[in-house]
Amino acid sequence: MILSMALLFLMCLSVNAGGQKGLLSSQSDETENNSETGLLSSQSDEAENNSEAEMLLRESNETVKSSHIVPWPKESNETVNSSHAVSWPKESNETVNSSHAISNSSHVHLQILAEGCRDKKFTSKSCQKIFCQPWEKCVQGNCVCKLPYQCPKNGEDVCSSNNKKYRTYCQLKSVECYRNQEKFSHFGACSLGHAAVSFRSDQKSQGIVLFSFNQTLRDMPICMNQKRWTMHEANVVCRQLNFQLGAEKILTETEFISWPEDTNFMKWSNRMRCRGFETSLSECFRLTDIEEPQKACEKENITAVKCYDYTADKKCTNEEFTCVNGKCIPLKDLCNGIDDCADLSDESCCKKCNNSHHCKSDVCIPSLSLCDGEDDCLDGSDEKDCAGTNKPKDYNKERILLKSSLTKISCGISNVTRDTHTSKRTKRLVGGEEALQGQFPWQIAVYDNTRLNCGGVFIGGCWILTAAHCLRLYHMSDYVVRIAKHNKRDIADNEEILPVEKIIIHHDYNAKTYQNDIALIKVKHVFLDKECIPLSHDVQPVCVPWSEYLFRPKKTCIISGWGQAREDRVSILRWAELNIFGNCSDIYQSDFYEGMECAGKMDGTVDACKGDSGGPLVCTDERNEVYVWGLVSWGEECGKYGRPGVYTKVSHYFEWISSHVGRALISKYNV
Fold it and tell me: For a FRET experiment, which of 77, 124, 408, 566 has its CA 20 to 30 Å from that of 491?
């Protein structure tokens, strides 16, 4: 009996255990089902967002997973996938956790920054994003100091804070760039006096700003024009007082003591303006710009500044942005065109700008910089359509003189004007539109013996840029270069055939993967002219881009060449328009490497083809200057759906090119 009861008890335990196992299995199955449902839902959302690209890819013979589809970049004002959207916290009667609200608010402010850009730590010294100052040059993507003798010689004498005379403003700034001891005092002879700033306060790091020059202006407070006194000026004041991270904020009238009513004030006029890079307030104006002192100033217009005076280990809060230099600024000050960080890192990665101008390189500049006679955006968009604006000239004539005196090369100018937008944009280069004589004066034909082997592009001097896969290093005598070539079946009177002196293939070129598919050809100097390749109506060099941010995805550019047009043979040089895609790693996966870029149409209506290799993909900036943005490298067939052409990204190889041909030959700016 006892044995029977024991057996019964064990059977009950077994049943219970089986029931529990079944329950776990059921939960596991349910979890798997939910997981699959979530995945399908996610794929469905992605497929909906990528519908155009997916439809095109489905029409191809290859099967492509939806996770690998790259949709055409959408405009920023289009609806964002709800799972990623962040909105301001809604009003509610319920109690909301304050830390959560702060987190949402912070996320909203940070959404204005371009994805991945912040990790690159761009600053005012990053010539990938901005122009270097006249006393700097661009090397390896960074602005570095020039030697004083490299500055232009024309200009006005300046005096330093150490009472030393310099021949030009550029020379003084070059010396200061190397050693931060010699600072600017004023334009003109040192005998005129000495400029300085100080605070009217017992505290060394904040107070009402006082300006002094000799005995004529002694500890005079500044009455500001509210539109002209910004954090740029505040940063300069603090930097002059040896606070290297600039200002923390501009003090309001409630944060400082009133000034006696009978005080004379220095007026900060419309002719005075700091750009933010200066280290002395007197760099922002000339002494002749100082007007007669004014007897009164509204309290809210008296300039007062608090300098950034924190230790290096200060941590930024959730409501602050950490600048590259370690400074903390309010998130609300991101992307407003004002260099609050004092290193420009808060304005260098902006998808859009608040009350300021957005450069295509994702840099925000002040509205005051528009149409001021000086290029601030890499592509010159801030100086576009400025006719009739009647904007006053820059306060700093010396700076304008400096920039105009810098050596500039002439490149990217076609003598044939033609409205490309009137053509049928659906036409491919494969059977595309015939070019006019001289329309692409940088186009080069590279011949292997008597056969047109590849295209190329003239970049100046004796140098041609082409694709590495077009050349064989040990068969140099087989190649000739033809300039001013238009009809490949005829030799025109203005056409020249030049022998090759040297071939330079990129040292890391991989013939299997097409990595670093770029090469240089140097032609022999056979003419009596000073120029290796004489310039003419039909022969002009193209500009070489130094920054990958000069042109962005969706930019419409042009390819040209003598490539095969389906089954038709091509004699006349042809061209077609296409769009930059940018990164295509999601399409080509492991076949896509750094230094490559995609361009074309997802539906295959525009593409390069056999015979176009090495030829140029050129883009035009807002100044109508043309840059070689890519070299035809490889692709999957000609005009295949969902498979845009792959180009060698020339800006990625600027340093390599300049190391062989000389920086002065190809540096349009930042020399």
Answer: 566
